[in-house]
Structures are given as structure tokens and as C-alpha cells.
């Protein structure tokens, strides 16, 4: 059932950098997938207008509830502590996705670990928990998508338990290797095996919607325009042919 | 029970553009209405300082939960689909208010429909659901009040079912024709039959509060100032008479 | 059990102004306190980068649910109304902390009361309810930490009942005199009797973390660096000795 | 889109009386419908073992939030008040389904209205709100499925607004005429156009599961038994042929 | 504002023992009080049919969140611990009402304290938290209304802080001395100053409703019967006169 | 960190069968563990008075959210489907504990799988999701602790993904081999390494509390009795010595 071996082309990654999560959820909806957008997760810092999306294959970290006797500050002395190990293991270009059970009461990362992820070339971090140091962590330059800001350290609620296993995040299934795409609206999980096709069709959909948006700005009524009827499709074909 | 025929003067609309929703809720509280402010709804983009409020009569759209066999992307080909029809029917100057049952998991509008509303002269859109394309939709210039950003299309959760009927939005009853006022704090529903009186008294209340705020900034203690006693009221009368 | 008589030095206050709530929660976690960070409470206006924290001893105000016959607008004519009295009584330098039972449906303060607190020299206001006039209230210059913006006046839900008693706020116990610290992540309650020690150790922790962050930015792996092993500690000692 | 004219045979109704809602949700799942079971709704009184299900076509009543000036006890003097009218209009054999927006704070019916429904031959009442008089209302003999017990009258939160329109109940779309089935687990909505087929297949599924359950009780392992392989299917065919 | 000195007659108490909380909420609604029924609170053991209600003046206990260093098992050695003191102080005939902030994660009482309350003649216990020992605590014979069963001791979440002050319970204001009435639907708080009048009118309302219920059972339509028109009122007057 | 090899004596199991979960949470609280009781989980059928507890080592099953293309009814044809495999693998005497992320919208087991667990000698099933067939599943005789009844099959929300790994259930960490104890209040997780000591101390605590309860029933005041002072302890010692 694992699909991690499916290759993802640079072209697919590049296409996914420039289509919206809105378009991607529509493409996945057309393929029968209704539950692909992480609930309760948003960019910590609103991306600049026109900035490319965060895109990368998921590398996962699973947390379960903390137990007071097991989760004390001493655990970090163990270099094989799963959270620290995940930060050192997630490949360059991947997105570290944490299952925090939607618990917003504590942080799931802070600025030192985020710096390490950035230095290692990881593409971003996603969590359905919060982050601490929220005033400055955005300056590190690693895209962060999370449930908001919270100061307490993860150990107060979380026990990192294993990595690179299928997890839940924001109510969505995330399999290692699934393509994670984040923009201003939030984060969508594109199943790896659908990524190439979905990326291509999403890019095409956005070109069409650019044309439709122009028409609607110009006063066109919805009927026949959105969705397009034959006549609008013909006009689009012409418009499209003139466009590089 | 419908009160849509009551005329609303331009003066009332103008007054409502320049008083806060805070003041309006106080005026409605004085008239026995405690549940007039939409819960969980906020401006998508913070209004500029001093910008006038969104104001207009409610034109409503009701959504019920989606059913997979009825709510597929093909439905939009029907130009009488209630959502598309509502966008084409809401009068210029009105505010389109959507009942999304407070469901934050999907979008209740996107940029093309919002553009069409703007072109048609609609005054704003309110929803207790989310919107997609949240990074750019604010640039269209239509005031949007909603539960936040979410990428998935409405069909994943909503079936638009009828328009211009009384609805629930953000836990508040909204009757077609009620006056919807939105500012930085959120949205208040002013029953149409009270709008003229509430607008006038709210405007008056704000003049008084401007005077009180000045006094408090100047060091006045609350006792006798807020609320004003006879002596403060006399000072206010004088201050008021000097003001145009 | 009251600890309000314990003196808090200016040095402690100054230290707390310059350490993050993240660091403070870690110091309190080390002392066995896991529930010290207010849930659902955030700064209304994001503090400027580098701005000092809000810091001061808690002066509390307790609200219970409103009852329609007791909580009408006439109550404010009573200058001994507990909310008004609290605003006039909270000492200069203190932080007014309100127990609103986490109810986000109404405001717990507005601009006139906030102005009075500012004029009186109060250090800040914290509430697990909302505030109204959210567009302009931040300009008054009083740090406000709350659950968000909501227009309706407090009387629609709250009955202010007593002040300077132990309360719940954001799910955390707040005893009068506890030191309240607020930054961009939110608000932490430091028990008064631990404040001096916690402030000192937090300041020290942050110096260490500055050193570690530099190393990680420079490419150091987490193992041996964070937390530091003997060799890193030795390097730190040298770095520390060179720093003023 | 209305399907109310599709006839439902007595055989279908009878089949639906004797299959579980668990089986029905499985049949609907096989047809692509995942959201057919009312969330947060349960029988007020646990049905007796072996009792037939509540079954009947939906007759709906829609409630929106109350407004204090419109929803006072005087409204019931109007015999055309939608709630009273719905109680007098729901056909014998139908199930009255109320949209209460999942609000559990007040009642959606009490013993006098329930008595009237029973006298009129209505088959049951379903609400995603609560009921009052919960100690004795079960003795009336009308099957009631709801969110629990709550004393306050509906007017404190609800304004009955129209009837026999599509509604939301327990997070599920309910169209007038859909077949409502309630058993000990709760309530499932069977789209009217699928009812005959779903009823027939559900009845057949339960015969098969009776056979499988016998085998598992007798020690059969799951592999090959549940779901059945060819050999188990052959054994089932024989068992089935011996059964009436 | 305290009304604890208002005498409550034995007749009032007796009337309140025999009217439903449903009727009481209607009487209070008529007087403008919409928020008098505790949300999320139910009888732990369903009262026997026909059993009198729990009735008594409120004696309150307020809890705030626990702090690990203050709330250890040793605190109970202090005989003045507020919870223990409340159990020993609540007068015979009163109802002990606990503010647990609606926290369902731990118990707010167990069998030994409940036994002590019973021995002391207290009329009942109400909490918006849970109780432990739920299998046997009902056998003690003290009416208990709570949020359900939960095993952990109160100290894990609660710090009992003071008694006989106004509190919140189940989202409702409870003033010491208010009359607490509990039946199968749950608990209503009757403000002490209204108790006599409300009890009398509630008793009268129930006689009327008994008559109406008889008529409806006999086939009367709602129009003219519920609420009664002049003709039904005349019939009621006659029926009433024949009844003792 | 795995402790599954620690032997658990029959005496410990027997002790745990006869102490309450209330007592066990107190013993664990004394050892610093505050989060050991599953939230939102209760026995489906109230245990008979005096019935022994469900007790056994945890065998876990982890579920993540379903994905429509992966979780169709065909998956059960795979005999290695993790849910089916878990049912066939959980050892006799163990308790199958499912992580359903607290999702109450669907079932996590039904009567056929429960029958198989019973036949295989499994000691019980715990889930923070619901179960279907709730009217009859209790007759199978396997103790079931869950979030309630819900008809839809697990596939509508859950994807069973792996077994015998540490999981979250009801907000609590459950490690394979931890001792799961369920009674009328709910379920407590006793870390395996503490089980022997906790069981012994819990048994002793209950004997003491039986003595205290007798005293309180006899009219003893709390002071000096609960907790016991020296004199009560002496009386207890004597009472204890006379008891076999």
C-alpha cells in the first residue's frame, strides 16, 4: 500500500508551487476525495502576494499524549529522541508533518529546531498543534503551517513516538511521501500516486479560470461563463492559443 | 411577519455607515435584543482606519449538508443552481448572507463569484462558513465577513437550497431585508423595523461617548463621567452646542 | 495561602520584560507546573519586534453569567459596580485579569474603560473573553490580551461580581499578586513566590539558547548541541565570558 | 429534484422495520453515501429488544434562532404558528423531523404536542435538539429520537419558520419524503429514491450476517468467513435454502 | 443585592417539589429570564416515576483550576479545606451547588463526602463537573445532579477556593439562597425573590395543562385548546371547580 | 522504553478486578500521573452491582482518517486488513484498545467482530469511538467501553493502520502491555511497571475507606476521619486486625 517509490517529477513540483490549494481540492474532489484539506491549520505568517507555495513530500512525526514520568526535560538528552531524530532525518526538500491530535495547548516546535530544519534544506513544517516563539520564528524563512501560537513546550502534552508512518493531521490521512502543498488558505495533502495528474489538471484549470475571471470582471453573467458553455469554451480556445 | 416593505432612508444607511457595531449592539440591548451579533464571523481583511462600515439589507442564501450523489461538480452547469442564482439575484446595495451552519471545513465562496457580486453592485458578503482564495479575494473590493479561510469547494459540505428566506447565520436570526452592518469587530443584524430609530440613537450615543472619552483621557474618574451624572450632562450639552 | 506580601524586586520585573513566555513555561515545567499558559488568549495587537513584555502583578475581576433582571444598562449608574470599581482600584503597574469563563460571545471591555486603565497607570488587561472597539482600542497604548473581538457589551453575558479573589482565566488559576507576563505568544502566570527565581533562570536560559541558536545557524547538528553536552557547555562558558 | 412522488411500497416499509440502521448505513455507503446517520441524536427511551424500527417518510420543520421581540409566549395564540401547524399537518405514518441546529439548550417538543402527534397517527419525531418532560413523554408511545432532555421551552432559542422544506438535522440533509429509520443506535435517512433497493439489499445482508454470526460463534476464524469466501458462500447457499 | 434573608415558606417548597422544571422554566421565561436551566447537568440516577423533586436553597462552592504545587493529596489534612468545610457547613435542607467550570475530566465528589452530606440532612448536590463511584453513590439516597461519571479525584483539576458566593454552574448564575429544583430533565435555578410567585403560578399552570392534555388525548385539535381559547377556558373553569 | 516483558502476577490482576477506577486514579495521582483516565469513554452496558472489573494488558489498534479511494468495503477481503488481523491476534486475556481519535461519528466495532473477540478469550474492548449494534452487542458478554452508539461502519471515517504500537485513546497514552482496568466510571490505564504496586496500595486504600465510610455513616465528622488522624488510624488498626 506504500507508494513512496513513485517518482515525482520536477515539473509536477513546479506546477504545484503555482496553483492554489483551492484548485487542488477541486481536482481531488473530482476524483472522489473530499477530505484532503487540513482543518484548523493555517500559515503562521501570511505568504507574500505571488510567493510560490510550500511543496514537498511528507515526512511524518507521530505524537501521543505525554505521561509525566516519561516526558520530562531530561528526555532531550537522548539524541535518538524521536522528535530530534525526525528533525535530523527529514530529507532536504521534504515537509515535516506532525500529528499533534489537534491539541492547541502547547507548542510542537520552536525556533532552534526550526532553524535546524531550515539549515538542513527541509521545505517546510506542518502541524495540527501550535508553535512557540511565534514573533520571530517566521524570520527563519521556513514555511510553517500550524494551529497558532502557544508557549508551553511540547513535553507538557506530547510524547513523540515514531516517524515516517501514516498519521492523522488536521483530520486528514497523511501517508509518508504524499505531496504536501501549502498556501495562504492552508494545506492540502495530494496522494503521491495522483500528484502528477492533479498538478497538470490544476494548472490547466487555473488558466481557464483566469480567462473566466477576466470575462466576469468585464461584466459577463455567470450563465454560460462559469462554468463555460460551448461558446465560452470556443472563446477560451482562441484566447488560449494567443497566450504563450 | 415580513417587514421587507418598510422603507429605509438614505440617512439611516449613512448613519449606520459611521457608527460602530459595538454601539449598535448596545442600542439593540436596550430594546431587549441580546442576540444580534454574529458569532464566529469576522472581516476577512481588517478595514482601514476610518473606513465606512459595510451596510445593506440582507439577501439570504440557505445551505444544507451536501449529499454525495446530488452535490457533484456537474450541478453548476445548471444556471438555476441556487448559489449561482443568488449571486445573480441579490440586488445592488444588498448584503448576501449565507447560512453555512457554522461549518468551517469548506469555502462558501471564491474569487469568481465574489467578482460577479462586486460587478453587480452588491454591498458585501457575509457567511458563517469560510472563503477560499483568501490571499487575493480581498483585492476585489467587496467587503467579506466570514469564519476564515478554507480551500475546499462548497459542494464538499453544502447544498445551496433556497434564497431570500429567514436563516440562521452565526447563531443569529437573519430575516430578508434586515439591515446588516459590518465593521472591524464583526457583523450585527439590525431588524429592519428598528433600523431608523437604532441608527439615530446610535449616532447620538457616539457623540456623547466622544465627549466622555475626552474627559477620561483628561483624567476624569468614571464616577459621574461614565455614565454621566447631571453635571457631566450639563457640560456635554454645552460642548455639544459648540460643535457643529 | 495568600502570597501577596512577597516583595517583587524591580530586577525581577525587568528580567521578566525581556524573556519569552516560551522560556517561562519551560522554567515552570521544570518546577512541576504544567498548566500556566492561558489557553485561547492572545495579544489583540501583535507587539512590535523587540518590544518589552507586559509584566505586572495580577489584580483580578470575576464575572459570572448575567441574569436579565439584574444586568441591565442601569447598573452602571452604580459607581460601586464591581467592573467600574475594579477599573478604579487596580493599582498602577498591575495587570487587570478578568475571568469571563472563556465566553467569546461578548466584550469584556471597551475603549473608555481601557483609556481609564491607561490613565491610571495600569500595566495591561487580560481576559479570556473578547473586547469591543477592536480597531481603535489598540491605539490607546494599553497592552490587551484577550480571546478576540466581539461587539456586544459585557452585560449581555457577564455579571461582574467581585475583585481581587483567585480566579480561573484561560483554564489557569490566577491568584491576586501572581506575576502576569504577556508577549506575542500569549500570557503566562508566574506564581508570585517563584517569580524571582524563575525570572533569573529564564534570563540565563535565554543567553544559553542564543549561543545554541548561533551554533545551529552555523550548521551544528542537534546531538551534543541542543541540549548541550560537556564540550558545548565548555564552548558556551568561553563565549559567555567574552560577552559583557 | 423533489422525489416525493416516488411511491414507497408497504413491503419496503416492512423490510425497513426489521433491519438495523447499521446495515442501512453499510448499504448506503456501498452506494457512495457516507453522511446519512444523524450525529448527536439517540432514542429518548431505549427500544425493547426485538421491537420494530420507527419508519416513515420525513415531514420537516425548520427552526431558526429566536429573537426576543418575535418569540414570546403569545405567539402560540396564532394557530398558524409553524410549529403548531406542523404538528397538525404531518401526515399519519410520517416522521416529523426538526432542524434545531444541534442546539441542546432547550426543548423542541413537550408532552402535549407529542400526544397530539400520537393521536394523529404520526410515526415518530426526530430532532437534533432536546425534549422536555423526559420522564413521562416516553409513556405516550410515540418513538422520539433527540439530543437528550432539556426543560426550557423552544421559544427561548428557536423560531419555527417553515415546514416541508429540505433541512439539516444532525449534520445530515433531510429532504421531505426521505425515509427515516430509527433504532437503538439512532436514525438513518434513506433517500426516497433508493429506499426500495436499499431495503431489499439490507434484508438480504442481514440474513447473510446471521449465518456468519452463527459460524463465528461456532469458532470460525474471520479469514474466509467475514467477508465470506467461495466455500462459505456455498455453505450459506445451502443454509439459506433450508431456511423458510 | 443579596436576597438570602427573604423567607421561603414550606408551601412554596412543597409546591416546587411537585411541578416540573419544564413548567418552571416557562414561568421564568414569562418573567424575562431565559437562562435559568443548567446546561450539561442531569440526574445521575433517573428519579422514580412520581418521585418529588430535589428542592432547596443553594449553598455554593467555587472551584478554580488546580495548580500542581498547591493541590496535592496532603491538602485534605487541613480540616478547613474549602471543599471539606463546605460539606460540613451546607445547612440541612440546602442544596450544595459546585462551580466546576463545566470540566468533565474529573470527579467533584465521591461516596464518602456524599454520605456525609446525606447524614447532615443536605437536600442534594449539584455540579457541572462529574462524580466518581457512580455505580454505588446513587444508593446513598442523596439526589445528585452532575455532568456524568469520572473517576479521577477533584485535585487533578480543581482547587476549592470559597463558599457561599455567587457562582456560575452549567452556564447559569447561582446566588446563595436561590431555590434549586431538580427533576428528571435537570436543574433549574429559581431566583429566591421570585420563588413564591413562580411556585404558585407553576402549580396552577400544571393543573391547566393536565386538563389540556386530557382534551388532546381525547382528540382535540391544538387550535383553541393549546393555548386555550375562551371556550376551552370556560370548560376548564368548570372542570377545575369539580376538582378538589 | 517498552516494558511489555515485565511479568504481571495473577494476584495483581485479581486485585485490580476488585478495586475501583476511582481508587486507581488516586494511587496514580500520588505517583505524579494526572492523565490516566480515558475521557469520553464509558461502559456501553452498566456493569451489574458487584461485578468484577474488566482487567487485562493492552493490545492496541491504531486508526487514521479514511481516504475514500483506499477505504471501500472491498478492503475486508484482505485477511491481513489491520482491524481483522488485530481481532485475530490480540491474546486471550488482553484488552483490545482502539485509537479512533475521539471521533464519535461512526462505529469502531460491531457484533460479529465482538463475537470473535469473545470466542478468542479476549478480556474486553476499549475505543474512544462508538460501536454499532448497541442494542444486542452487550449480550455477547464481552465488556465494551466506548464513546456511545453509532451505526455507520468504521470505513466511513477510519483506516486501521497498525497494531501493538503506543497510541492515544481518550486523550491518554496507552502503551502495549499497560494494564487496562474498566468499571462503571470508565477506564484507567495503569502503566505496566507500576501495576503491582498500585494494585496492592489500591486494595489497601479501599479497606481503609470502607472503615471510614462506616464511621461517616455512623455520624462521624470529616475532621479527623477523612483523612484519618492518629486516633482514627488507631481505631482502624484495631478494626483491621479483627477483620480476616
How would you explain this protein's 3D organization?
Six copies of one chain form a homohexamer. Chain A has six helices and ten strands. By secondary structure, chain A is an alpha/beta fold. Chain A folds into two domains: 10-191, Glucose Oxidase, domain 1 (3-Layer(bba) Sandwich); 198-242, no CATH class. In chain A, strands 1, 2, 3, 4, 5, 6, 9 and 10 form an eight-stranded mixed β-sheet that branches. The first copy, chain A, has a two-stranded antiparallel sheet with strand order 7-8. In chain A, helix 4 (111-119) links the parallel strand 3 and strand 4. In chain A, helix 1 runs parallel beside helix 5 (195-217) and helix 2 crosses helix 5. The longest helix of chain A has 23 residues, at 195-217. The model of chain A has no long low-confidence stretch (mean pLDDT 96). Chains in contact: A-B, A-C, A-F, B-C, B-D, C-E, D-E, D-F, E-F. Chain A binds chain F through residues 1, 31-35, 64-70, 101, 159, 161-162, 165-168, 171-174, 191, and chain F through 1, 31-35, 64-70, 101, 159, 161-162, 165-168, 171-174, 191.
Tags for this model:
eight-stranded mixed sheet; two-stranded antiparallel sheet; Glucose Oxidase, domain 1; alpha/beta; 244 residues; homohexamer
Amino acid at each position: 500500500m506504500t507508494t513512496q517509490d513513485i517518482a515525482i517529477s520536477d515539473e509536477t513540483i513546479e506546477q504545484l508551487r503555482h496553483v492554489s490549494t483551492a484548485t487542488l481540492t477541486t481536482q481531488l474532489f473530482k476524483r472522489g476525495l473530499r477530505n484532503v484539506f487540513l482543518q484548523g491549520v493555517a500559515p503562521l505568517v501570511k505568504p507574500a502576494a505571488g510567493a510560490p507555495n510550500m511543496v514537498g513530500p511528507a515526512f511524518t512525526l507521530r505524537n501521543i499524549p505525554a505521561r509525566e514520568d516519561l516526558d520530562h526535560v531530561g528526555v532531550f538528552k537522548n539524541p535518538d529522541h524521536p522528535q530530534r531524530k525526525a528533525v535530523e532525518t527529514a530529507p532536504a526538500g521534504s515537509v515535516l508533518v506532525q500529528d499533534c491530535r489537534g491539541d492547541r495547548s502547547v507548542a510542537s516546535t520552536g525556533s532552534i529546531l526550526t532553524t535546524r530544519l531550515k539549515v538542513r534544506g527541509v521545505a517546510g513544517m506542518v502541524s495540527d498543534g501550535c508553535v512557540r516563539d511565534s514573533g520571530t520564528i517566521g524570520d527563519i524563512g521556513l514555511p510553517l503551517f500550524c494551529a497558532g501560537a502557544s508557549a508551553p513546550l511540547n513535553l507538557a502534552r506530547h510524547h513523540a513516538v515514531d516517524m515516517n508512518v501514516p498519521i492523522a493531521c488536521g483530520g486528514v490521512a497523511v501517508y509518508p511521501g504524499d505531496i504536501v502543498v501549502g498556501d495562504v488558505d492552508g494545506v492540502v495533502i495530494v496522494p503521491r500516486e495522483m500528484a502528477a495528474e492533479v498538478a497538470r489538471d490544476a494548472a490547466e484549470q487555473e488558466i481557464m479560470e483566469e480567462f473566466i475571471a477576466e470575462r466576469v470582471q468585464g461584466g459577463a453573467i455567470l450563465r454560460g461563463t462559469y462554468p463555460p458553455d460551448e461558446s465560452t469554451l470556443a472563446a477560451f480556445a482562441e484566447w488560449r492559443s494567443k497566450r504563450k
